């Protein structure tokens, strides 16, 4: 549905914006749909005629759509076709809802089918349509549910005895302060009230002692108005059903609860009705003059009420108090009503609810805890209805903090009226309430957090300390709190410097704790605590002591450290004051070098510090600052010491790798000496004493006047080890510096490992064994033989390249792994200690590659093919489909061979599709390859994988690269063939040429397969004349529609067209023709004709006409209905038609052979008369109640051409609100009625209906001449 945005809205946007216009129009539409839904509910619940309702909504919906189009509101503006569709949619929905259209079920689907057709127009109902229109949409007047020709019924009933019952449920009634009246029901049985009288007796006597009585008359119209007002009030005020808070607590008092809002009309019988009296004054109501009545009187008194009365109600401080402030409260309850009264109330303490009941309350009642006996009050009710206003005290205790709720639930007066709390009449002002609530707060308490006299808070000089106050118990409703704090300076503080003070601190919103900053030492005290409602308690610790911490300091004493060579360092003794731990920073400067800063941490107040530099020089030692637990980086004005320091001489081994057990190991492979590096410290030159320890002896060596701190010592190898090898140790014994200060050295010795045999390396095997062949992607293992101590490091390379490879081996019989072909050469070897030599005779190893198998066409096959370099394919000679063909392949490799190849076929779209992937085995180097010629098309053959004994396919599953694959192709020509696309019979008229009749039809189309052009040979046989004619046709394409303009059909009857042979341009033999699709039939016919079975000229709507058709089906019949032309296709003969439209009907043409051979018809003309109809009670449902001895007039209305004959029947009365029809009691037929209206009179009870009617021409329901006739709308 398209929406237009053109044009401007009828209502300007300046007056009303477009969204508001759309909102208003949508609201109007929703209102209309709501009213429509109400009408639909009323329609389905009643049996009245709904045609007027359907017409009303058809008109309203149409006017709504037209008005919407006229307003031209943006986004709600539709095109004219769309508006038409909307109107049609609304009409369809309205007709379905209100009976304008009904759905016929398939119950009438089963009728006999005799091959007849129905040609008619739709407006009138025909009973015969019930057999031919299952599951279709028909007007409601056509269905059995509502017959448009036989309408109405007249029901006569005898009136029963009428009664009236006053207050049928024996309810009690009372007038509240807010309500103006009460509703008293009157139950009517089998009557409608035209007037009603009742008396109203006042409850209280007059000054003369008499009771005043008023007589009131109410008309029937007033009763209906009052009853309608009561129904509207119930709809507005009906409460939702919700469970009471204390439904789980049951007692017998609950059984007296009644729902005054319940509607007694819901349980009425069909003969009963309910009306109401509206009473606005208290008194006794007696019902009079309503035929017969029951329960004469009803007492109406003012409704009871109860409320709390408290002078402090509404004041916030009166409902909130502190725990212990007041032990309880006294509440006052005001009650009003006819005694004795019963009160139900409840209390809830911290969510725990309890209910209480007090009965027998009257003017002598002293409180809810002392109920009075109510028997005397009940007796007094019968004599006097005096109202009482009572004030009842209620004491409520508050033992624990929390939330207390008190509520009045309901009150019952002496008459039995029950009024629930909060109902109408209780009021909602602050002075008159039904609930009271109290909040009892917990008293708050505070104390200092993390501070007391025993654990004071530290205060640093020049800063402030944060002191926290913690609330132990506090109610958030009581906040914020005010805390009174005072300050007292220390007693030893000089007077005048610090002064005492007091201040009030206030907590923040939603926070209970607070803190403040203390900037002076002394004692801080919490004096008091006060909240919004309560005075709090001060807990311990209530005093916080703040102590000022002094800055740290140190006493330092320097000492010199003196040894044989002189001063070697300094030491310091420190006495530290402050809060440990301490960190002391000192500075060391040597000669003119930049000073360096160091630090040391002490955990106690006394410490020692020693500094002994490793280098000689002039040193200055200074302490600069210190830290303790409270202060950071406090400057120290400590003493400074200057000293010239000469460190003691020392020596150790350098640049040695550690061996087993932490010793240093040095290896020697050749020579008589070994070099050992040592590091010297102190003041040079140095004299060094070294000891060499061999397996059998030891020797001491002296190295004098060593000038440098790093010295390489040449140590001779002991003679017992120099020749055969072995191990010995080198130890440092002592060192002497320039001051002749000699020190003994204790450092780990150096172990020297002396070897006299070198490691060797060679490839294993004879020259022939050092040649190995591998396949592609295979690794070769080159065996080695190694001597020496592992691990070994081997360097080797492949000859012809500059790349040198290394290998680390652990086994003397290890091997080198390679994956490339070539000659590999060993370059050098080295074991764990010494370099070695490579055997020159066995230093090389040769690796060769085994070639992969290959396949190619033999020379003979290549000679019979063309090579296409673009795709590296061999194009074989073309062959015809089914001809055996092969090629020979040459295979190179090691047999046996396995060949996996793809067979593909061109798909006609520039690509190929694989049709097979077989595997072929061969043990010879030449094999024959069979080609596939069973399927026509372009065939491609590709050798995908080739395996032999060296490269088996299971170990080499990867396919060969496409550029290395053998590829050849061949064109296989299809054998020519021809067949008809379908076997449909073709129809021609006499003397027609054999040319196509319809271009779009596939009848007579020949499909040819092969390579065009084709030569097609056809034979045409006239079966009746036994004449055969053979024709040859040249066809340039693969599809040809039979077109033989030179052939003419000269006789009627069947003709057979057969394909005899076909050839194409490939010169291949013809394939076998399909005998089922190689021939078709052509029917040659004369002109069609239509003949009626009878020659009647006057017909009735719904009557069946039968015709005989001559020719070949299907036929096309042309006809006119009231001047309008129609056509209909008929497939069988004879056929029947049902007349459905009154007026003129004529058949004007008939054709067969798909509207060929058409003939005009001039003598088939009929006059169709409408069906008569009859109505009882002018088509309506009439219900008439008569008394015994009276008569009712039943009127019949007849429509049609007189004279009439009709049949009516009387059955048992039917109810107004639906129900099944009653049993038929009598049936009568009346004939020769010349007028259009006929009346009868009857004093009998029953329902009169018409079952049939006949006029001059027609009868309804019509007599079915052919029950099995198949009927269809035209």
Automatic annotation (TrEMBL):
Comp. bias (Acidic residues): 246-261
Residue stretches making up the Nucleoporin POM152 immunoglobulin-like domain: 549-650, 878-953
Keyword Transmembrane helix in annotation: yes
Keywords assigned: Membrane, Transmembrane, Transmembrane helix
Pfam families the UniProt entry points to: Ig-like_POM152 (PF24312), Ig-like_Pom152_1 (PF24519), Ig-like_Pom152_9 (PF24527), Ig_Pom152 (PF23664), TMD_POM152 (PF24097)
Endpoints of the signal sequence: none
GO cellular component, one term: nuclear pore transmembrane ring
GO molecular function: structural constituent of nuclear pore
Domain of life, source organism: Eukaryota
Membrane spanning stretches: 23-44, 50-71, 83-103
InterPro entries: Ig-like_POM152, Ig-like_POM152_1st, Ig-like_POM152_9th, Ig_POM152, Pom152, TMD_POM152
The protein's name in its UniProt record: Nucleoporin Pom152
Organism encoding this protein: Coprinellus micaceus
Lineage of origin: Eukaryota, Fungi, Dikarya, Basidiomycota, Agaricomycotina
């Amino acid at each position: 549905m398209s929406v237009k945005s053109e044009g401007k809205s009828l209502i300007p946007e300046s007056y009303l914006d477009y969204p508001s216009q759309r909102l208003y129009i949508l609201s109007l539409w929703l209102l209309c749909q709501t009213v429509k839904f109400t009408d639909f509910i009323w329609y389905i619940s009643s049996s009245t005629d709904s045609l007027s309702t359907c017409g009303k909504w058809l008109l309203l919906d149409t006017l709504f759509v037209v008005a919407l189009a006229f307003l031209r509101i943006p986004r709600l503006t539709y095109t004219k076709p769309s508006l038409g569709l909307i109107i049609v949619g609304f009409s369809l929905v309205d007709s379905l809802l209100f009976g304008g259209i009904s759905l016929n079920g398939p119950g009438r689907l089963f009728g006999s089918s005799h091959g007849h057709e129905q040609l008619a127009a739709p407006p009138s109902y025909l009973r015969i349509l019930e057999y031919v229109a299952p599951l279709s949409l028909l007007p409601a007047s056509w269905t059995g549910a509502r017959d448009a020709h036989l309408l109405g019924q007249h029901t006569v009933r005898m009136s029963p005895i009428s009664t009236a019952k006053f207050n049928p449920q024996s309810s009690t009634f009372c007038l509240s302060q807010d309500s103006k009246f009460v509703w008293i029901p009157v139950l009517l049985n089998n009557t409608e009230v035209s007037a009603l009288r009742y008396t109203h007796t006042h409850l209280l006597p007059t000054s003369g002692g008499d009771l005043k009585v008023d007589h009131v008359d109410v008309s029937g119209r007033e009763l209906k108005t009052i009853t309608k007002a009561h129904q509207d009030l119930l709809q507005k005020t009906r409460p939702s059903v919700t469970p009471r808070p204390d439904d789980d607590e049951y007692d017998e008092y609950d059984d007296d609860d009644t729902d005054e809002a319940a509607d007694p009309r819901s349980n009425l019988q069909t003969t009963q009705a309910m009306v109401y009296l509206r009473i606005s004054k208290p008194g006794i109501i007696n019902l009079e003059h309503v035929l017969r009545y029951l329960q004469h009187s009803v007492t109406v008194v003012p409704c009871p009420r109860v409320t709390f009365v408290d002078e402090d109600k509404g004041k916030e401080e009166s409902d909130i108090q502190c725990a212990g402030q007041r032990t309880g409260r006294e509440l006052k309850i005001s009650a009003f009503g006819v005694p004795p009264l019963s009160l139900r109330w409840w209390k809830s303490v911290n969510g725990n609810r309890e209910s209480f009941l007090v009965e027998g309350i009257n003017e002598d009642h002293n409180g809810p805890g002392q109920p009075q006996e109510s028997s005397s009050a009940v007796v007094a009710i019968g004599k006097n209805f005096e109202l009482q206003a009572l004030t009842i005290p209620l004491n409520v205790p508050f033992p624990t903090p929390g939330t207390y709720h008190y509520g009045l639930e309901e009150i019952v007066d002496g008459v039995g009226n029950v009024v629930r709390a909060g109902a109408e009449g209780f009021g909602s002002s602050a002075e008159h309430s039904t609930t009271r609530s109290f909040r009892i707060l917990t008293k708050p308490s505070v104390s200092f957090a993390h501070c007391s006299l025993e654990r004071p808070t530290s205060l640093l000089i020049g800063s402030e300390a944060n002191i926290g106050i913690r609330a132990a118990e506090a109610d958030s409703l009581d906040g914020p709190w005010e805390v009174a704090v005072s300050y007292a300076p220390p007693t030893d503080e000089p007077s005048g410097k610090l002064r005492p003070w007091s201040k009030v601190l206030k907590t923040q919103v939603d926070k209970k704790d607070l803190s403040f900053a203390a900037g002076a030492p002394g004692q801080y005290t919490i004096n008091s605590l006060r909240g919004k409602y309560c005075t709090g308690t001060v807990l311990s610790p209530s005093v916080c002591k703040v102590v000022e911490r002094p800055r740290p300091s140190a006493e330092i004493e320097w000492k010199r450290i003196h040894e044989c060579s002189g001063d070697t360092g300094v030491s310091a003794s420190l006495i530290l004051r402050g809060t440990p731990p301490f960190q002391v920073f000192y500075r060391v400067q040597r000669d003119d070098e930049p000073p360096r800063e160091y630090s040391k941490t002490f955990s106690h107040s006394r410490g020692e510090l020693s500094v002994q530099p490793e280098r000689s020089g002039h040193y200055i030692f200074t302490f600069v600052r210190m830290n303790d637990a409270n202060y950071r980086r406090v400057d120290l004005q400590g003493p400074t010491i200057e000293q010239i320091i000469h460190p003691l001489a020392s020596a150790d081994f350098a640049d040695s790798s550690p061996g087993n057990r932490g010793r240093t190991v040095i290896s020697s492979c050749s020579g008589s000496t070994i070099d050992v590096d040592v590091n010297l410290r102190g003041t040079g030159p140095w004299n060094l004493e070294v000891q060499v320890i061999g397996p059998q002896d030891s020797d001491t060596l002296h190295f004098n006047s060593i000038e440098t701190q790093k010295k390489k010592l040449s140590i001779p190898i002991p003679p017992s080890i120099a020749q055969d090898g072995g191990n010995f140790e080198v130890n440092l014994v002592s060192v002497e510096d320039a001051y002749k200060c000699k020190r003994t050295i204790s450092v780990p010795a150096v172990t020297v490992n002396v070897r006299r045999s070198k490691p060797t390396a060679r490839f294993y095997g004879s020259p022939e064994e050092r040649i190995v062949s591998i396949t592609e992607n295979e690794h070769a293992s080159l065996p080695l033989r190694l001597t020496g101590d592992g691990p070994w490091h081997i360097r080797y390379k492949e000859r012809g390249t500059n790349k040198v490879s290394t290998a680390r081996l652990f086994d003397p019989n290890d091997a080198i792994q390679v994956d490339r072909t070539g000659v590999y050469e060993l370059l050098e070897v080295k074991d764990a200690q010494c370099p070695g030599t490579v055997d020159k005779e066995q230093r090389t190893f040769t690796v060769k590659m085994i070639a992969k198998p290959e396949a190619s066409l033999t020379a003979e096959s290549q000679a019979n093919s063309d090579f296409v370099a673009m795709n590296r394919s061999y194009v074989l000679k073309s062959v015809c489909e089914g001809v055996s063909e092969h090629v020979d392949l040459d295979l190179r490799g090691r047999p046996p061979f396995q060949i996996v190849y793809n067979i593909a076929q061109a798909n006609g779209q520039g690509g190929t599709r694989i049709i097979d992937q077989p595997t072929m085995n061969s043990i010879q180097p030449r094999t024959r390859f069979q080609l596939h010629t069973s399927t026509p098309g372009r065939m491609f053959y590709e050798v995908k994988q080739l395996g032999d004994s060296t490269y088996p396919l299971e170990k080499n599953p990867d396919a060969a690269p496409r550029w290395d694959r053998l590829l050849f192709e061949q064109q296989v020509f299809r054998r020519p063939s021809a067949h008809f696309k379908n076997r449909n019979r073709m129809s021609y008229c006499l003397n027609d040429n054999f040319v196509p009749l319809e271009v779009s039809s596939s009848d007579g189309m020949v499909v040819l397969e092969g390579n065009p052009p084709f030569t097609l040979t056809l034979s045409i046989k006239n079966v009746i004349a036994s004449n055969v004619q053979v024709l040859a046709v040249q066809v340039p394409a693969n599809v040809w529609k039979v077109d033989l303009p030179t052939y003419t059909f000269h006789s009627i009857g069947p003709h057979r067209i057969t394909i005899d042979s076909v050839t194409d341009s490939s010169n291949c033999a013809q394939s076998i023709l399909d005998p089922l699709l190689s021939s078709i039939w052509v029917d040659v016919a004369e002109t069609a004709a239509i003949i009626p079975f009878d020659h009647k000229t006057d017909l009735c709507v719904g009557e069946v006409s039968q015709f005989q058709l001559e020719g070949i089906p299907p036929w096309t019949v042309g006809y006119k209905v009231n001047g309008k032309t129609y056509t209909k296709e008929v497939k069988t003969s004879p056929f029947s038609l049902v007349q459905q439209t009154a007026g003129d009907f004529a058949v004007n043409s008939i054709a067969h052979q798909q509207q060929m051979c058409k003939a005009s018809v001039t003598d088939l003309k009929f006059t169709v008369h409408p069906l008569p109809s009859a109505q009882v009670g002018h088509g309506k449902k009439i219900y008439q109640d008569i008394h015994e001895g009276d008569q009712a007039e039943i009127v019949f209305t007849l429509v049609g051409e007189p004279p009439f004959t009709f049949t009516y029947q009387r059955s048992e009365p039917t109810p107004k609100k639906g129900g099944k029809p009653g049993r038929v009691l009598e049936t009568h037929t009346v004939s020769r009625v010349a007028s259009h209206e006929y009346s009868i009179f009857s004093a009998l009870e029953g329902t009169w209906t018409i079952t049939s009617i006949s006029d001059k021409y027609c009868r309804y329901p019509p007599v079915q001449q052919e029950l099995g006739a198949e009927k269809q709308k035209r």
